[in-house]
Amino acid sequence: MARLSTEQQQARARFIAQLEDGRLQKPVAEGSSLPNSAYTSEDFYKLEQQTVFRNNWVFVGFAHQLESVGDMIPIEVAGQPLVLVKGDDGSIRGFHNVCRHRGAKLVVEKKNSRKFICPNHAWSYNLEGKLIARPHFHGGEKHDINTETCHRADMQEVSCETWFDWVFVNLSGDAGNFIDYIEPVVKRLEGYDFSDLHFCDALEFDIKANWKLAVENFIEPYHVFACHPWLNGFVGMDERCPPDFENHLLYCGYEFKQADPARGGQLPWFPNLPEEKHNRGDWFVLFPNFCFEIFPDQVDVFIATPTGSDSCHETIALYFVGEGANSEKYLQARQHVIQNWSDLNHEDIGVIERMQAGRYSDGFDGGVLSPYWDPVQQYFARLIVNAIKQDLN
User: Which residues make Cβ contacts (< 8 Å) with residue 169, sequence separation at least 6?
Assistant: First the structure.
């Protein structure tokens, strides 16, 4: 588990004290969600980074960004500089992005190299993070190239797993087996063959709101009738079910009566798709912040990356089936889908940023929740609190 500073421990104690009234344990109609400080406090943001994002499996990048052996990408998780690299065996690994000698950052931008080389004293490491050589280590022209005796200086590896095109890491190493982490969603994807699914494009947004508001907005359909005219016309509120949850998975879905060019209309479908999936849309959140939707012709990944207590960066990555991802034949169809996602997200952004502004009001602190639509909001709040309390004795 993460080692919390005294300041972080005090911040955790203050936050937990705010929940002693049982607001998260009461029935939804009587209870509420997280207090305002969970969205506005810099202390809470730091605490969250050291617990929620350090101790769980967290999405960090796309495998297609590491196409060739030696491709390296610097990333950051919970304030820690890391690097992803594609090794000689084709596997993607994650390492702490720092030389073991004097702590210089090894990779500062995406690059391709057969080795890591420190800019400070030219210590070098292979793609598996093993130290190769230390020039002049024993004096001028007395180089250390005995790799059998210097494993203490190898790069520090972090737990790293790839699922389809999506790369996850667990900094603490305490998150459990990755197969167990994705199992709840994998069993709900039966019938979808990802083998011919290809990345097409990504939309990027900087949002002036806490990352949790973006995730909470993603999983709840209650706002559709007020915020999304097209989406409400596609599937009305009386046709929508409330979200559900299991362990660290939040999920929801609907049946649509007729396909639309934006969803299941003019692009190739998953091959041999079961009939019950022909008019089906489902969306998922793997805690803490890996979200995606799936339709007969596409998978759309939504990531809300924390950048501060009151800001986040959103990425929407769009995947299509077969030649639907890159053929000129389907160019207009792809553009229609991409534009639809851009429009929908812009409709959300203004509301999310208003919710962030409202978190500074004494007139709001956790919300008065709908017992039909909002159990998922309270459950997500519990996941946050449990992650923060996880290493308490």
Answer: 57, 58, 60, 77, 82, 94, 158, 159, 160, 161
Phi (first) and psi of residue 315, to 5 degrees: -125, 130
Mean of per-residue pLDDT scores for the chain: 92
Return the number of other C-beta atoms located less than 10 Å from residue 300's C-beta: 20
Q: Mean pLDDT over residues 13-32, rounded?
A: 79
DSSP, collapsed to helix, strand or coil, labels residue 269 as coil
Does the reported pTM lie above 0.85? yes
Residue carrying structure tokens 């005090």? 10
Asked whether the beta carbons of 33 and 377 are under 8 A apart, the reply is: yes
- Give the integer Cα–Cα distance in Å for 307 and 211: 8
183-216 b/e (C-beta count within 10 Å ≥ 16 → b): ebbeebbeebeeeebebbeebebebebbbbbbbb
Q: Which two tokens stand for residue 388?
A: 């923060």
Report pLDDT digits (tens) over 83-115. 999 999 999 999 999 999 889 999 999 999 999
Going along the chain from its start, the domains and CATH numbers come out as 58-170 (2.102.10.10), 190-387 (3.90.380.10)
